[in-house]
Design brief:
This protein has nine helices and 17 strands. By secondary structure, the protein is of the alpha/beta class. Its EC number is 3.5.1.28.
Length: 428
């Protein structure tokens, strides 16, 4: 679970901006010490964080996290917005929580949780550029727990930017050294990548009852995976099959490296007002259909920032006419998929008043993989939440979605023989 700790006003603003509820965000004092025990998250390593605090002022701030045992860690900076990220091995979190308090020092907020299998993360939001003066772990002694300590001092914007640039260069080197993508298999099978949104440190939307988007969409994706597997026509892959965080870029890279023929990202957001409900199918466009589509895309695109992931520099400039043509064809296929999905789901699922929307979702930007983002419903609506939690509704909806995928691929096959691709229905 992804926990965010910040001053009351900032917490409310962030909850509204991200389309989540304030109940999922915990406030903190200037000492950032939290009370009222939070359930312990699982940790195979057996190390548990039991408390955390940031003390000091704008000239020097010390972040301290109490641990049940010593643990290795790494620290690095990120900008836009300014953050310090602390990566740890698999750590369980049993931090207490407390109501709203003023935050002092150079740290305005912090979040913590799992970032991937066997790896945990703490993200410190900053009021201004800082440098890490010292960072170390004190072993347990005299009845006191082990302590992870990170000392922060102010620095110039130029120095902070230089430190971020060095980190990004090292990351690029690591990516370049990574195992190259395997060639496309020649077995003739169609490959579908299902992408349950959020996960790990990023809970996604949170209903008033406490229902987490990351859990709802994972349960649905597994149901859909089963329906598609039963047909025997596809190889179905999941970007995540457990409570792991996957970056937006990592989701796109997964689809491309596995030579996906279709990428379906599954979500269940929240939005202003409990009257907003119903399923929505999104396809990629740099110009959003309307303000609501733009705000939801902006919220989803912040997942990496909240999880302390370096957002790559913009690389949208097209330097190859063939790449440009591939992107156009991919967008056309994506729109056809969305329209067929709406036609097939129509008798089974309640749709939002404008069921097909377009916006600039980062997760849909693979230039060579037809992609769509399916909002199953809105956790901010009590009726939608009941449906999303219903196994019967999941099964019925997954069956309808599997049929829509079948129809889409029949059209794709027809296009290879006729040279034209006609949508199953007109645009809504």
């Amino acid at each position: 679970m992804f926990h965010s700790i910040r001053s009351g006003f900032i917490a409310r603003c962030a909850a509204l901006l991200l389309g989540t509820f304030a109940g999922g965000i915990f406030a903190v004092t200037g000492a950032v010490a939290i009370s009222a025990a939070e359930p312990v998250t699982e940790s195979s390593a057996g190390v548990v964080a039991t408390d955390a605090r940031a003390v000091g002022d704008d000239s020097r701030t010390r972040f301290v996290m109490d641990l049940s045992a010593e643990a290795a860690f790494t620290v690095f900076p990120l900008d836009e917005p300014d953050r310090i990220v602390i990566d740890l091995p698999d750590v369980g979190f049993a931090l207490p929580k407390e109501a709203e308090h003023e935050v002092r020092g150079l740290v305005s907020a912090f979040r913590y949780g799992q970032i991937s299998a066997g790896k945990s993360r703490v993200v410190l939001d900053l009021k201004q550029p800082v440098s890490v003066d010292k960072s170390f772990v004190l072993p347990p002694a005299d009845g006191q727990p082990a302590k992870l300590v990170v000392d922060l001092v102010p620095t110039s914007r130029a120095s902070f930017a230089s430190a971020v640039r060095l980190y990004r260069e090292r990351e690029k080197e690591a990516i370049a050294a990574a195992r190259p993508a395997t060639p496309a298999p020649s077995d003739g099978r169609l490959r579908i990548v299902l992408d349950p949104g959020h996960g790990g440190i990023d809970s996604g939307a949170i209903a008033k009852s406490g229902t987490l988007e990351k859990n709802v969409v994972l349960a649905f994706a597994k149901e859909l995976e089963q329906k598609l597997d039963e047909s025997g026509r596809y190889e179905v892959l999941m970007t995540r099959s457990d409570d792991s965080f996957i970056s937006l870029g990592g989701r796109v890279a997964f689809a491309r490296s596995h030579h996906a023929d279709l990428f379906v990202s599954i979500h269940a957001d929240s939005f202003w007002g409990g009257d907003v409900r119903g399923a929505t199918i999104y396809t990629l466009s740099e110009k959003a259909s309307d303000r609501m589509a733009a705000q939801i895309a902006e919220s989803e695109n912040k997942s990496d920032i909240l999880a302390g992931v370096a957002v790559p520099e913009d690389t949208t400039e097209v330097s190859d006419i063939l790449i440009d043509l591939a992107r156009r064809e991919t967008k056309n296929f994506s729109v056809v998929f969305a329209r067929n999905m709406i036609k097939e789901l129509g008798p089974k699922v309640r749709f939002f008043k404008h069921p097909h929307q377009q916006a600039g979702f980062m997760v849909l930007k693979a230039p060579d993989v037809p992609s769509a983002l399916v909002e199953l419903g809105y956790l901010s609506n009590p009726e939608d939440e009941k449906l999303l939690a219903s196994p019967a509704w999941r099964e019925t909806t997954a069956e309808a979605m599997a049929r829509a995928i079948d129809t889409y691929f029949r059209l794709r096959v027809a296009q290879t023989t006729t040279g034209s691709l006609e949508p199953a229905t007109s645009a809504p």
